[in-house]
Amino acid sequence: MENDMPARGAQSNPSVGTTTIIVGPTASGKTALSLLLARRMDAEIVSADSRQIYRHLTIGTAKPSDSDRSKVPHHFIDILDPNQEYSAGEYGVQARGVLEEIQKRGKSALVVGGSGLYVKAVVDGFFDGPGKDPEVRERLERDLEREGISGLLKKLEHVDPATAQAMTREPKARRVMRALEVYYSTGKPLSVHFSEQKRNPLSNFIMVAPLWERALLYKHIDERVVGMMKQGLLDEVRWLKSHGYHANLNALNTVGYKELFEHLEKKTSLDEAVSLIKLNTRRFAKRQMTWFRADKRIRWLPVSSDRDFEETASSILALPV
Predict the structure, then answer these.
(1) Which CATH number describes the domain made up of 134-196?
(2) Which long-range contacts (CB under 8 A, 24 or more apart) does 222-230 make?
(3) Domain assignments of the chain as residue spans, ordered by start
(4) In the chain, where does DSSP find H-type helix?
(5) CATH number corresponding to 19-126+206-317
(6) What is the pLDDT of residues 15-34, one digit of tens each?
(7) What SS3 class is residue 78?
(8) Fewer CB in 10 Å around end: N or C, the chain?
(9) Residue 175 — pLDDT band, cuts 50, 70, 90?
């Protein structure tokens, strides 16, 4: 971009038509930064968090408070029950529709979240394949129970080695099953569907991320876990369990929830569960950083404390469009 292009703060509501996307690892301050920006830009926030979409998962997903949501409109928060399924592909289509509606109202839009696939779905478009096939899904569920995820991964290696290779490092049953379901339903590997897909990337966007030193980020994570426990995360998990939600649900296969479900099942002490939440959150943050660092479109903005967010917000507003 040329240096003489106008900054977004140079005119009244200049960011309409330009989508600002805030990404980064958990506990990096995305929510706080987005609220600052939203007020200064007259923006609405489109969440790109694959767990904040679920009702009743409030403390453990660090949802914006009711007060913050009353001041700034938020989208894609509390839209599903924990036993409902939802995909990145569905999100991408729906989120783009919401972005269009926001812009038609003459407002700015902020996409905010750390779920890499959700961000990719809204920015680049995302192939989600055919609709779910109940018969195929039921058969794969039986295969998973009998053979485990390693067995399903071997099946995927046979029919779609490229997709299997991409999943080998950290295979997740739901994603492996979906890739197999696409193949069995269409006769074509998911990797081929991806290669044939006509990309329709989002136009007019900037993507930024707060950049912390790792030690400071990990300190934030540990402090946030302690804060969540004080807010009543264990009671939140007890409520979910008492209302029939179980740890095998995709929504609850989430750091903070799965460890406390194990505690309630007497598999760990509370202290052990909290230590595991801290450890697994740090590991999750590391994986998020690896994902986002691979995207060269992201502008990383160094921060060293929460007090930096005002300056960071000003820096974002000063970026050329």
Answers:
(1) 1.10.20.140
(2) 222/278, 224/27, 224/62, 224/281, 225/256, 225/274, 225/277, 225/278, 225/281, 226/274, 228/59, 228/60, 228/62, 228/256, 229/274
(3) 19-126+206-317, 134-196
(4) 30-41, 66-71, 88-104, 116-124, 134-159, 161-167, 173-186, 190-196, 214-231, 233-242, 257-264, 270-293, 309-317
(5) 3.40.50.300
(6) 567 899 999 999 999 999 99
(7) coil
(8) N
(9) confident
